[in-house]
Amino acid sequence: MKKIKTAQLKQLVEAAIFVADAPVSIQRLRDTVLSDFTVAERTLKTVINELTLDYQPRGIQLVKVASGYRFQSVDALSPWLSKLWQETAPKYSRAMMETLALIAYRQPITRGEIEQVRGVAVSSSIMKTLTEREWVKVVGHKEVPGRPALYATTSTFLDYFSLSSLSELPNSDAFDEMAKSIDSTSSLKVLNEAPSEVTDRATENKQIKSDTND
Q1: 136: β partners
Q2: Which of 34, 83, 147, 161 has an alpha carbon 20 to 30 Å from 208's alpha carbon atom?
Q3: What domains are there in the chain, each with its CATH number?
Q4: Cα 148 to chain center, whole Å?
Q5: Cα 80 to the chain's mean position, in Å?
Q6: How far apart are CA 141 and CA 12, in angstroms?
Q7: What pLDDT score was predicted for residue 87?
Q8: How far is residue 17's CA from residue 6's CA, in Å, rounded to a whole number?
Q9: Res. 188: pLDDT tops 60
Q10: pTM, whole model, 2 decimals?
């Protein structure tokens, strides 16, 4: 195994994360671009922290999401950067976002439990879309008659919405004051505003990353 100078290591890590088509974890860096070198995990983390600081005042930032590290544009620049694309960002129905929010906040949860909270049936197309996008997956079956599937979010969901863990989801307690002033059946609508905001931001970031890779 060869040694590598800190300056070269920093360049290699920066380039690897930049050209990757998905977030890159420390383990993946060690198994791929750094496989020929002796690099302690602590040293690698230090280099990544230095890169993060280097990019803080710039238009592109190095951020950590669930699957690893990636470069993405600063949120505040999105109104202007969005003009680079003629097509509009994908829009998702309120029913889909309500379903996704329930899975995110109450996972693991069955389809029947989602329908019970929403008060309406969850269409098969919604569940199909969420699973095809790999935002949710079946993680088991509830031990009740019929053994319905239990759904939970995935690391792809976290990556897409620029989250490193579920703990970064807006705390439902923050909506308590607003929820008190509306009908209990509307409380869920307030809760769903948070994931909607994250959707817009993450979509824009994903578009920037896609254009950079091209």
Answers
A1: 153
A2: 34
A3: 6-75 (1.10.10.10), 94-213 (1.10.10.10)
A4: 26
A5: 22
A6: 44
A7: 67
A8: 17
A9: no
A10: 0.64
